[in-house]
């Protein structure tokens, strides 16, 4: 019988510490994790899905970590993943991509009423159905190697689109040969967050949460099983149930599919819906996303408290949303009984580790965000988000919040300064008698782009060894210089019409506005939010910028 054993055949792409790339089997990935930098994939979302598969394997094989002490033992043991070899041998029959009875993450014998076989576009996410543009696989995917197909099978369960799908025989949800939209794959609901270390071994361990020591996380101990330790799925929906923990969620079978193969590879697929799972209030089980309180969902479902995954905005850099990553529940509640947002469980876990002394405060972790943005009723993937910020774990310390507070405050400094720059561009446009909203938005984009690398560099140096308040003051001076130079450039490029000026209407009446006055207002706003750059410390309230008309002041 044909076979492609994922425990021994190479199929997982990796980046080695020396910069070379390779493909490894599951066994080899765990054996060599300490010499690998990270996983790589056809898409960042594929890498995220594969990492979750590895985490489910590690959780189950290591039976933990049970608590922070167990985790510390694993962290110190360079051969901590040795038990995975025997574990993979034990469950080897469930990791054969082509097995006749239990093909990996598939349903044997799956077919439609007309025995149709569909193109591989349905599972290869970088070839949108009907819109095969801007892809390296144009105009379609005719064949995949077994290794490629295995990766896309994992990705499909995690990120498959919604929309109407052809029904499969044996699924009682089929109506007129179709199954109507039941939502995207589970990970597609998330604003994915993972913590990256210096090697894949460290990355796996940092994300290997102990639910007993992670605030807000729960698990059905003993019953939290990955998909390969559960009954093989049939063609229809399984018994309705809640997830039992991370192993269950990381391998949730959100689709039913079967690859069609020959001796040379994969040439087609049958794909249908599997077990749907709504995202509402799953924060007790899913640690790899931030959460936001949703009053709309509370009203809709008549529940007193509802949390939904906090999705990523492709237009917003990761550092601008750092509050959702590092603010603890007390800070996020702002005096309310329940927090308005919850940071990801993996970062709650790392916060606990640094607080109890299992991780040094200066240890640098890379918080990576990965997610898919869907369009047209979630039937296509419009964009994939992939960004990161490096920060010392000191920012997550639960009893020493000064560093986290200054990191969040520094983003506010940037926001205020960039808004001042946008207001300058708007004022210059009004002084010249031209359209004012477009220049303001363009200037804000320019400002955030100019502060992107400086903030990331500054944040990585906030490691718990220096005075965080002085570091914040230095950041404010840097922002003042950077945004001030951008303002000078806008002034220089404003042209004669802005220099001459014109009469404008304000709430208080009419007045003359030209580039000179706009520049004065800009410097006043900048000094007010950041302090004067020539003084050693920030001076709140320095300067007095005039109030800007609501109609012309646009915030990022």
From TrEMBL:
Protein's recorded name: CRISPR system Cascade subunit CasA
Region (Disordered) residue spans: 533-556
Biased composition (Polar residues): 547-556
């Amino acid at each position: 019988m044909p076979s492609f054993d994922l425990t021994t055949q190479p199929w997982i792409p990796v980046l080695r510490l020396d910069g070379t790339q390779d493909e490894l089997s599951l066994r080899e990935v765990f054996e060599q994790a300490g010499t690998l930098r990270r996983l790589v994939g056809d898409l960042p979302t594929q890498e995220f899905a594969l990492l979750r598969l590895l985490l489910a394997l590690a959780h189950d094989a290591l039976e933990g970590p049970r608590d922070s002490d167990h985790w510390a033992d694993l962290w110190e043991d360079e051969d901590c993943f040795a038990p995975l070899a025997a574990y993979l041998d034990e469950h080897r029959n469930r990791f054969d991509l082509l097995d006749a009875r239990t093909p990996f993450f598939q349903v044997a014998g799956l077919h439609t009423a007309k025995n149709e076989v569909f193109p591989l576009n349905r599972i290869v996410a970088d070839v949108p159905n009907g819109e095969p543009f801007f892809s390296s696989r144009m105009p379609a995917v005719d064949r995949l190697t077994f290794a490629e197909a295995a990766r896309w099978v994992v990705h499909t369960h995690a990120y498959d689109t919604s929309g109407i799908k052809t029904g499969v025989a044996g699924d009682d949800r089929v109506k007129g040969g179709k199954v109507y939209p039941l939502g995207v794959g589970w990970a597609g609901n998330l604003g994915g967050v993972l913590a990256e270390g210096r090697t894949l071994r460290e990355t796996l361990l940092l994300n290997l949460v102990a639910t007993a020591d992670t605030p807000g996380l729960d698990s059905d101990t003993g019953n939290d099983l990955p998909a390969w330790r559960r009954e093989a799925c049939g063609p229809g929906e399984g018994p309705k149930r809640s997830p039992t923990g991370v192993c269950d969620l990381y391998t949730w079978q959100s689709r039913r599919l079967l690859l069609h193969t020959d001796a040379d590879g994969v040439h087609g697929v049958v794909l249908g819906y599997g077990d749907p799972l709504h995202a509402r209030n799953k924060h007790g089980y899913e640690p790899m996303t931030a959460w936001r309180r949703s009053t709309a969902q509370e009203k809709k479902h008549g529940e007193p408290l509802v949390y939904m995954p906090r999705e990523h905005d492709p237009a917003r850099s990761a550092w601008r949303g750092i509050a959702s990553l590092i603010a603890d529940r007390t800070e996020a509640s702002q005096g309310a009984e329940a927090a308005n947002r919850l940071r990801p469980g993996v970062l709650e876990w790392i916060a606990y580790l640094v607080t109890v002394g299992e991780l040094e405060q200066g240890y640098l972790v890379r918080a990576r965000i990965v997610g898919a943005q869907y369009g047209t009723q979630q039937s296509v993937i419009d964009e994939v988000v992939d960004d990161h910020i490096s920060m010392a774990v000191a920012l997550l310390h639960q009893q020493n919040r000064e560093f986290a507070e200054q990191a969040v405050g520094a983003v506010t400094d940037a926001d205020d300064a960039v808004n001042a720059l946008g207001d300058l561009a708007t004022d210059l446009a009004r002084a010249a008698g031209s359209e004012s909203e477009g220049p303001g938005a363009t200037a804000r984009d320019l400002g955030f782009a100019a502060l992107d690398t400086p903030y990331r560099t500054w944040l990585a140096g906030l490691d718990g060894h220096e005075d965080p308040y002085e570091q914040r003051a230095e950041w404010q001076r840097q922002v003042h210089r950077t945004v001030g130079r951008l303002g000078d450039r806008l002034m220089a490029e404003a042209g004669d019409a802005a220099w001459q000026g014109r009469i404008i209407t304000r709430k208080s009446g009419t007045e003359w506005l030209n580039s000179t006055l706009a520049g004065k207002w800009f410097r006043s706003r900048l000094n007010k939010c950041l302090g004067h750059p020539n003084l050693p410390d920030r001076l709140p309230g320095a300067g007095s910028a005039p109030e800007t008309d609501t109609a012309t002041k646009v915030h990022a």
